[in-house]
Design goal:
Blueprint: E1 6-11, H1 19-33, E2 36-41, H2 47-59, E3 64-69, H3 72-84, E4 89-95, E5 106-108, H4 111-123, E6 131-136, H5 142-154, E7 161-166, H6 171-184, E8 188-193, H7 196-208, E9 214-218, H8 222-229, E10 235-238, H9 241-258, E11 265-266, E12 270-272, H10 277-285
Parallel strand pairs: 1-2, 1-3, 3-4, 4-5, 5-11, 6-7, 6-8, 8-9, 9-10
Antiparallel strand pairs: 10-12
Helix pairs in contact: 1-9, 2-3, 4-5, 6-7, 7-8, 8-10
Length: 289
C-alpha cells in the first residue's frame, strides 16, 4: 500500500485569527484528497526561521510545501533546494513578485488592487485635505506595503495628509498605539488599516476615542465583525483565507500524483459591511470566512 502524501504549510505570525480559516481550508482539502497536511509557522516575521521549519519538514519526509512567500529573495534558495529534491512548493497568502521566489503558483489576494478598492470606497467618506492615519501591523511585509500603496493611489486627488505607523500584530497593542497617535494628533479624522491586527485595533480605537472617526481595513476576525456591525469600522475587505488553505493542497496533490502544474489564483477582495456582516459572522464562526 502506497504511503500517504504529507504536506506542510509554513506561515508567518501563525497564531493570528486570520489563519484559522486557512487551517480549516487546508484540513478540508487534505481530507478530500486523503493526504496528511500540517500547519506550521513563526510567531513573528522571520524568513530564516520559516526556512528552517521547511528544511526540517523535508528532512522528515514532507512531499510538498506551501509557503507564505513574503520575501522572494530570501526564499529563493529554499525553493530551489526543495525543487531539486523533488518537493514542489507553492505560495499562499503572499507571493511576492508573483513567483519570483521560484514557487509554482500563488494563492493570494492582488494586494495593490485590493488597496485601491479600499481607497475608492473610503474616498466618498473622507473629505479632501483630511489627515488620515495609515497603519501596518508589521514592517517589511510586501502585501501590506502593496495595499498601502494602492490606498494612497486611489486617494491621490484628495490632497490627504498621511500619517503612517506600525502597530504590531497584537490587537490590544495596536489599539493602544493608535489611541496614542490620535491623542498626539487630534486632527486625524480617519484610520485606514492594511491587515487583520491593525484593522481590529483601529476599530477598537475608534470605539474608545470618544469622537467620530472613519475607520476601515482588511481581513476578518470575530472582533472585526463586531466592530463592523456596531459601525466603528465602516467596512473590511476579506481576502478569503479558506481558499488560501484549500487550493494549495489540491494543487500540490495533483502535481505530485499526476504531474499537473499548479496555477496562480487571486483569492479575491470581498467587501464586508453592515449589510452583510451578520451572514459573514455565521460563516466566520463556522471557520469558512
Amino acid at each position: 500500500m502506497a504511503r500517504r502524501l504529507k504536506l506542510q504549510f509554513v506561515a508567518v505570525t501563525c497564531d493570528e485569527d486570520f489563519f484559522r480559516p486557512v487551517r480549516k481550508g487546508m484540513a478540508d482539502a487534505a481530507a478530500l484528497m486523503d493526504v496528511e497536511a500540517v500547519f506550521t509557522g513563526t510567531k513573528g516575521v522571520d524568513a530564516a526561521e520559516m526556512a528552517a521549519l521547511a528544511r526540517q519538514g523535508m528532512a522528515d519526509g514532507v512531499d510538498g510545501l506551501a509557503l507564505v512567500a513574503f520575501d522572494a529573495t530570501a526564499f529563493a534558495p529554499l525553493v530551489a533546494e526543495a525543487h531539486a529534491r523533488g518537493v514542489p512548493v507553492v505560495a499562499f497568502n503572499i507571493d511576492q513578485g508573483k513567483g519570483s521566489a521560484g514557487t509554482l503558483s500563488g494563492i493570494a489576494q492582488d494586494f495593490g488592487a485590493a488597496g485601491r478598492a479600499l481607497g475608492r470606497r473610503a474616498a466618498a467618506s473622507i473629505a479632501p485635505g483630511s489627515r488620515v492615519l495609515l497603519t501596518l501591523h508589521d514592517a517589511g511585509i510586501s502585501a501590506l506595503e502593496e495595499r498601502r500603496d494602492g490606498i494612497k493611489a486611489a486617494l491621490e486627488g484628495h490632497d490627504i495628509v498621511w500619517i503612517e505607523t506600525v502597530t504590531g500584530h497584537q490587537v490590544k497593542e495596536a489599539a493602544r498605539r493608535i489611541l496614542a497617535i490620535l491623542a498626539e494628533k487630534p486632527g486625524i479624522s480617519a484610520i485606514l488599516a492594511t491587515g487583520q491586527a491593525d484593522t481590529e485595533g483601529a476599530g477598537l480605537a475608534a470605539e474608545q476615542a470618544g469622537r467620530m472617526l472613519y475607520a476601515a481595513g482588511f481581513d476578518l476576525s470575530p472582533g472585526i465583525l463586531r466592530l463592523v456591525e456596531t459601525g466603528h469600522l465602516a467596512f473590511t475587505i476579506d481576502q478569503q483565507p479558506y481558499a488560501q488553505g484549500f487550493y494549495p493542497v489540491i494543487q500540490l496533490v495533483l502535481n505530485l500524483r499526476y504531474g499537473l502544474m499548479p496555477a496562480s489564483l487571486d483569492a479575491g477582495a470581498a467587501i464586508v459591511d453592515r449589510a452583510n456582516a451578520r451572514r459573514i459572522r455565521a460563516l466566520s464562526e463556522a471557520g469558512y470566512r
